[in-house]
TrEMBL record:
Species whose genome carries this gene: Frankliniella fusca
One GO cellular component, as annotated: BORC complex
Record-linked InterPro entries: BORCS8 (IPR019320)
Location of this chain's protein in the cell: Lysosome membrane
Family indicated by similarity: Belongs to the BORCS8 family.
Pfam families tied to this protein: BORCS8
First-listed, main subcellular location of the protein, grouped into a coarse class: membrane
Full protein name: BLOC-1-related complex subunit 8-like protein
Keyword tags: Lysosome, Membrane
């Protein structure tokens, strides 16, 4: 039998290896939570900025989409209101047909009478008696007066249109 004081080198190497493994495992177990937190921190640091950029882009796209939805709703309501205007367009079409027919009738009547041109001067001259030999300039005066009246009427229409335009712009 061997003496109790004798040390077995093989046993000593096995004990040393076992104690190193236990020590290493204890070190890993003790440091494992901090290693896990370190890995989480790395992951968050790398993946968070792209996620934030994507979120900002999604919010921007959502706002744009809402704007487009409002535009579509407005367009749909405009189309529906145009559908409601159908009877008005039919009425306008009938009025245009009537006006065309009346214009054709007037042309036929004018061609039957043999008149080629009707003007303010001719309408005024029809009411003036022809037995005025002392006034040779009367025809020119009447023509000038008729031209002045027509130009004043055109100016009045133009100024009236401008007034309506400025009033509607102020509203």
């Amino acid at each position: 039998m061997a003496a109790p004081n004798m040390v077995d080198p093989e046993l000593e190497s096995r004990v040393k290896k076992a104690s190193e493994r236990i020590s290493e495992n204890m070190h890993i177990v003790a440091n494992e939570p901090s290693l896990a937190f370190y890995r989480l921190q790395e992951h968050v640091r790398k993946s968070l900025p792209p996620m934030v950029e994507n979120r900002v882009e999604v919010i921007k796209l959502h706002r744009e989409l809402q704007g487009h939805c409002y535009d579509v709703e407005y367009a749909v309501s405009a189309v529906k209101s145009m559908e409601e205007a159908g009877p008005h367009f039919e009425n306008m079409k009938d009025l245009i047909k009537r006006a065309t027919i009346y214009r054709q009738q007037l042309k036929i009547d004018e061609s039957r009478k043999g008149k080629k041109e009707s003007s303010v001067y001719k309408r005024l001259s029809a009411h003036i008696p022809l037995d005025l030999p002392d006034l040779p300039e009367l025809g020119n005066a009447l023509r000038e007066t008729a031209n002045k009246v027509e130009s004043m009427m055109a100016e009045a229409r133009h100024s009236n249109a401008e007034q309506h335009k400025t009033v509607s712009e102020k509203m």
